[in-house]
Amino acid sequence: MKTNIYALPRFSLRFVPIWRRNFMVWKKMAGSSILGHLADPVIYMLGLGYGLGGMLPEVGGMPYIAFLAAGTVCYSTMNSASFEALYSGFARMHEQRTWEAILNTPITLDDIVFSEIVWAASKSLLSGLAVLAVIWLLGLSHSPLTLWLIPLSLLVGLCFASLGLIMTSIAPGYDFFMYYFTLVITPMVLLCGVFFPVDQLPPLLQTVSSILPLTHAINLARPLLNDVIPAHFLWHAAVLLGYALVGFYVSLVLFRRRLSQ
Amino acid sequence: MNTVLSARNLRKSYGGQMVVDGLNLSIRRGECFGLLGPNGAGKTTTLRLLLGLIEPDEGELQLLDHAVPEEARGARLRVGVVPQMDNLDPDFTVAENLLVYGRYFGMSDKAIEARLPELLEFANLTHKRDARVPTLSGGMKRRLTLARALVNDPEVIFLDEPTTGLDPQARHLIWQRLRELNARGKTLLLTTHFMDEAERLCHRLAVMDNGRIISEGSPRELIERNIEPQVVEVFGGHAAAWAQSHAAQHAQRFEVSGETVFCYVQDAQPLLRELQQHPQLRYLHRPANLEDVFLKLTGREMRE
Asked: I need a surface site. Which of A5, A35, A97, A196 has the fewest CB within 10 A?
């Protein structure tokens, strides 16, 4: 009668009340949250974009600040989902015992993990909208294709929320997350073409870069901002979705092992 | 007989160690049932098994006509839980905690709002409706947790050490509320290691140790079945020496614990006459209680 912890996730709409709970908490500090989503990319784009950009001719066939804008959309959305899935997710699971309270109701662990992913992706969506607003206000792109950055933000959010939750599921404490940021997120930012084109890297690192999810996100975002339909867009989207699905499944198995044994 | 919960031969082990070892349990509608046991006896694991939060290695379990854990979701819709550790939402007010929790049961905001005044009244928190959780006292938090467990109007309420860490005033208020719930027909299942709590509240008790139920019955039955009716506690520096030479003559059974000797007797008169002759010894004569039973069944040594 042992149920299998490797069983496929069972979806239900019961994740919705958990999403609403998180939204209610977020609303209480929405001001500072939105300010953070806006200030961070503005500082990056103005500082690096105009500062560094002033010394550079075109990068990748566009002004440096426009080049950087595409990287910033992906970088910001990745960060939002990662912080939410790691630090806030861990607080809800471990420190505040919010999950424990929820599990005493008809909601199951599968619903909770799914709600965490959807919630973290919602934060990414918000972050993507904030960067997009800055891009429009600075006049960095006038292409209607930039609207595609909205669903892309959600997809990047789903991807990095799922990957982040794997860390949360095995974390003994907050300090553990430094490994993830130092060993995964920071290299990803430097290898995936946020600040400079990937073809500047040695061939081996280019190969590494090609399997990292952020690269695929940037390969979608950059042409869109440049008013070009991205080459192989289905492939890039499929890679991001694949990371999201595998991350969701692996984290769910690990959470089941941690909490329902 | 109307049984709301029945467990047969439940087993659960962690890393080769049996935490719940062949547990049988049957709880009737409307009763208050207490699970007693020292720390580490397996009480909390048992509750988690009964709620379907973890899976037994063996055994059969029915809660409110649902097989658990397979149909635990359906069972938990009609159950309320007061956990041992506080897990209220610290970012929310009292009323928001109840609202958010009711939504987890699929209740509409309107239905929850309609229940709020009654729940707040029951928890004596009407005046704290808009206070944030961190500003509440320990007793208020417990009462809010109890109110939260009632939001779905459950038939059965699980309470894991409901008064641990509360001051006497706060404990008495919780006890009063639990009796009211019981009087309204709710079935209560509580774990505790406070014998006075068990004796006051519970119709039936099970004493648990090392994952097994070692005795079961009403508080009175447990005392009658397991222990002599009278207890004389003898204190003082010479008590242990006195016990070695004299206690066995006048007591059916005695135990030495530090500087106190516990003598268990059918008739205390001969022992009391003997004690009059030792003015250096102080003593206390009292009827046997549940704590005596508990210590006899689970031993006096510390559980750490």
From this structure: A35
Query: Can you tell me the ipTM of this complex?
Result: 0.92
Facing residue for B90 by CB, picked from A14, A96, A100 = A96
Chain B CA closest to residue A18 = B104
Give the burial string for B159-184 (b: 16+ CB within 10 Å, else e): bbbbbeebeeebbebbbebbeebbee
Residues in chain B: 304
CB-closest option in A20, A24, A104 to B76: A104
Sign of CA pseudo-dihedral B241, B244, B248, B251: positive
| pLDDT tens digits, A99-108 | 999 999 999 9
The answer, yes or no, to whether the previous bond of A213 is cis (omega within 30 of 0) is no
Q: What angle do CA A119, A124, A128 make, to 5 degrees?
A: 150
Higher pLDDT, B9 or B255: B9
Are B55 and A28 an interchain contact pair (Cβ–Cβ within 8 Å)? no
Kindly report the nearest CA distance between residue A197 and chain B, in angstroms: 43
A178 pLDDT tier (thresholds 50, 70, 90): very high
Residue owning tokens 């973890």: B54
Element (H, E) at B256: strand B253-257
Can you tell me the distance from the alpha carbon of B35 to that of A99, in angstroms, rounded to the nearest whole number?
Answer: 25
Token match 């206390």: residue?
A: B284
Torsion of CA A236, A241, A243, A246, to 10 degrees: -150
pLDDT at position A69, please?
Answer: 93
User: Which DSSP helix (H) or strand (E) runs through B215?
Assistant: strand B212-217
* Total Cβ atoms within 10 A of residue A2: 8
Q: Do the Cβ atoms of A184 and A213 come closer than 8 Å?
A: no
Q: How many CA atoms lie within 13 A of A53 on its CB side?
A: 20
Rg (CA), chain B: 23
C-alpha to C-alpha distance for B286 and B284, rounded to whole angstroms: 6
Which of A187, A226, A66, A81 is CA-nearest to residue A135? Answer: A66
Contact A2 B55 (CB under 8 A): yes
Which residues lie closer than 8 Å to A6 by C-beta, 6 or more apart?
A253
Tell me the three state secondary structure of residue B208.
strand
Q: At what angle do helices A109-137 and A233-259 cross, to 10 degrees?
A: 140
